[in-house]
Backbone:
C-alpha cells in the first residue's frame, strides 16, 4: 500500500509547480520582448502587460506561501 504524502510535501510540490511555471513564462516573455523580429508595437505592449501581471502573480504567490507557513 502506498503512503499518502504529508501536507508539507503537497504544499512544497504545489509551490515548486507554480513558481517554476511562472518563472518559465517570465523568461519566455522577456525573450519575446528582446526579439527584433517582432515589430508590432501593440503586440510588444501586450507582452509587457502580461509580464507585469506575471510579476504581480509572483508577489501574490509569495504572500500565499507566507500565509501557508503560518498555518
Residues:
Amino acid at each position: 500500500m502506498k503512503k499518502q504524502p504529508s501536507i508539507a510535501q503537497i504544499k512544497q510540490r504545489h509551490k515548486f509547480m507554480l513558481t517554476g511555471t511562472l518563472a518559465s513564462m517570465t523568461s519566455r516573455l522577456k525573450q519575446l520582448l528582446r526579439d527584433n523580429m517582432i515589430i508590432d508595437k501593440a503586440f510588444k505592449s501586450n507582452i509587457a502587460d502580461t509580464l507585469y501581471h506575471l510579476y504581480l502573480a509572483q508577489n501574490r504567490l509569495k504572500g500565499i506561501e507566507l500565509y501557508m507557513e503560518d498555518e
Notes: The chain has two helices and no strands. The radius of gyration is 17 Å. Residues 24-70 form one domain.
